[in-house]
């Protein structure tokens, strides 16, 4: 199992890779992938970073755990491979985009198209055991992804952070809100969305307005 991250990120995260917790984490992940079915596939663990390079980064969306069903997770939060049925949270994301931007509901749930435009789709935990939600939490991934958020906050300016739900909102403590934009709302999961905490947040049009204000290309959501 070969775990590599895009060179543009490697330069900024080198210190993390040399820490003992990270070596222990990688040992754990390799053991899990050798002895259990785990997701996403090994080569896609760092796919969020491969598609959204550090230089192109302009938006961050924070998720919690990869999907744990067979064939779903592709290394980007909320995203699934082409041809995979859209999970409930993704359906609600697409419904909000549909009404917010007056665009048709997309056929593909593969969000690589967002990542390639500079949207980092970051799960707090990057791996999971098949059909066991949260099984790789508290093994070191959260320390690593917190360091990613902190690095972005310190080394970039004008990034739009989208924090959806209670878990993601806690990450605001890692973000310098004086030089970045933070938009918060309920989570797109049915439990939250059906209570009125998701629909109508207009995060996609608001994000594009902020990007354009800074002279950046809007995202084709």
From TrEMBL:
<protein>
    <recommendedName>
        <fullName>Uracil-DNA glycosylase</fullName>
        <ecNumber>3.2.2.27</ecNumber>
    </recommendedName>
</protein>
<feature type="active site" description="Proton acceptor">
    <location>
        <position position="65"/>
    </location>
</feature>
<keyword id="KW-0234">DNA repair</keyword>
<dbReference type="InterPro" id="IPR036895">
    <property type="entry name" value="Uracil-DNA_glycosylase-like_sf"/>
</dbReference>
<dbReference type="InterPro" id="IPR018085">
    <property type="entry name" value="Ura-DNA_Glyclase_AS"/>
</dbReference>
<feature type="domain" description="Uracil-DNA glycosylase-like">
    <location>
        <begin position="49"/>
        <end position="211"/>
    </location>
</feature>
<dbReference type="GO" id="GO:0097510">
    <property type="term" value="P:base-excision repair, AP site formation via deaminated base removal"/>
</dbReference>
<dbReference type="GO" id="GO:0004844">
    <property type="term" value="F:uracil DNA N-glycosylase activity"/>
</dbReference>
<keyword id="KW-0326">Glycosidase</keyword>
<dbReference type="GO" id="GO:0005737">
    <property type="term" value="C:cytoplasm"/>
</dbReference>
<comment type="function">
    <text>Excises uracil residues from the DNA which can arise as a result of misincorporation of dUMP residues by DNA polymerase or due to deamination of cytosine.</text>
</comment>
<dbReference type="InterPro" id="IPR005122">
    <property type="entry name" value="Uracil-DNA_glycosylase-like"/>
</dbReference>
<keyword id="KW-0378">Hydrolase</keyword>
<keyword id="KW-0227">DNA damage</keyword>
<comment type="similarity">
    <text>Belongs to the uracil-DNA glycosylase (UDG) superfamily. UNG family.</text>
</comment>
<dbReference type="InterPro" id="IPR002043">
    <property type="entry name" value="UDG_fam1"/>
</dbReference>
<dbReference type="Pfam" id="PF03167">
    <property type="entry name" value="UDG"/>
</dbReference>
<keyword id="KW-0963">Cytoplasm</keyword>
